[in-house]
Amino acid sequence: MSNAGDLLKVEGLTAGYGAAPVLHEVTLSVGAGRIVAVLGANGAGKTTLLRTLSGLLPLAAGRVMFDGLDLRGVKVEKMVRHGIAHVPEGRGVVTELTVDENLRLGGLWRKPREPLDEIYDLFPALAQRKNHLGHQLSGGERQMLAIGRALAAKPRLLLLDEPSLGLAPKITSQIMGLLRDLRDRTGLAVLLVEQNVRSALSIADEGIVLNLGRIAAREKADKLADDADLRHAYLGF
Ligand SMILES: Nc1ncnc2c1ncn2[C@@H]1O[C@H](COP(=O)(O)OP(=O)(O)OP(=O)(O)O)[C@@H](O)[C@H]1O
Questions:
Q1: Where along the chain do its domains lie?
Q2: Are 178 and 166 in contact (CB under 8 A)?
Q3: Do 201 and 224 touch, CB atoms closer than 8 A?
Q4: CB 54 within 8 A of CB 224
Q5: What is the DSSP string of 164-231?
Q6: Rounded Cα distance, 190 and 183, in Å
Q7: ABC transporter domain: from which residue to which, for each copy (predicted)?
Q8: Are 19 and 78 in contact (CB under 8 A)?
């Protein structure tokens, strides 16, 4: 599932922490306007994959190309300028800053700064809490803020790690619906790491199953959702 129009192309990626690789020769691609779900058991390497793609961890081998640019030479803090935003697991909201200040951090590198109206339209709950501090928000509101901050940077690719973590099903489905809308309206591409397999596959175009740091399967999302053998083998349901 790789073609000339791919925004992100990962080839033979090997990476991890220190000498022992966690990811082994991972090859995948994400096209513009596509949502690709990354699934797999605890410890499969999903978070490590996102951390490597966003430049937080070095590549031991392989190549990551984004819209024709080799990301090996790009510093982590410059990724956002190239159109890649990462929402880490655990959300990454600055708890001492207000909602508004957190959102402004996302678009800080843009000059002139753009108003945040679009983000507040997407997340009315945040609009009502512009002056609340990060630590005064609920888990769901913090997750929305972390995603909102990433979107304020106007990325072309969102690397999203476990957006459903600790959230009520209703909030999770709101967030999934929002991602689908953004994909359809703006052509946003998303690499979505999720434990909530059903939610992720309900909005994804493709699904990738990681097992012990290797790609065990790569399928269209509806096919993956229907593949009972694969689900039993790697996803536990
Ligand atoms: N900072 C670290 N230093 C060393 N090893 C790590 C570190 N973080 C994760 N690992 C190891 O890397 C492997 C993959 O972890 P990773 O967090 O990428 O898995 P995951 O698929 O995201 O799991 P989960 O679904 O539980 O979040 C695990 O064996 C883990 O112990």
A1: 6-89+157-235
A2: no
A3: yes
A4: no
A5: TTT--HHHHHHHHHHHHHHHHHH--EEEEE-S-HHHHHHH-SEEEEEETTEEEEEEEHHHHHH-HHHI
A6: 8
A7: 8-237
A8: no
| Residues 76, 36: Cα–Cα separation, whole Å | 22
* Distance from residue 136's CA to the centre of ligand 1 (Å): 29
Rounded to two decimals, the pTM is 0.94
Probe ligand 1: pick from 17, 26, 52, 210, max atoms within 8 Å of CB? 17
Q: What are phi and psi of 51, to 5 degrees?
A: -65, -35
Residue by residue, pLDDT tens for the chain (237 residues) are: 555 579 999 999 999 998 889 999 999 999 999 999 999 999 999 999 999 999 999 999 999 999 999 999 898 888 999 999 999 987 678 999 999 999 998 877 666 677 889 899 989 999 999 999 999 999 889 999 999 999 999 999 999 999 988 888 888 898 999 999 999 999 999 999 998 899 999 999 999 999 999 999 999 999 998 988 888 888 877
CATH topology of domain 6-89+157-235: Rossmann fold (3.40.50)
Question: What one-letter code names the amino acid at 3?
Answer: N
Tell me the CA–centroid distance for residue 48 and ligand 1, in Å: 6
Q: Determine the atom of ligand 1 nearest the C-alpha atom of 48.
A: 18
8 Å CB contact between 83 and 155: yes
Instruction: Tell me, in angstroms, the distance from the centre of ligand 1 to residue 213's CA.
Output: 10
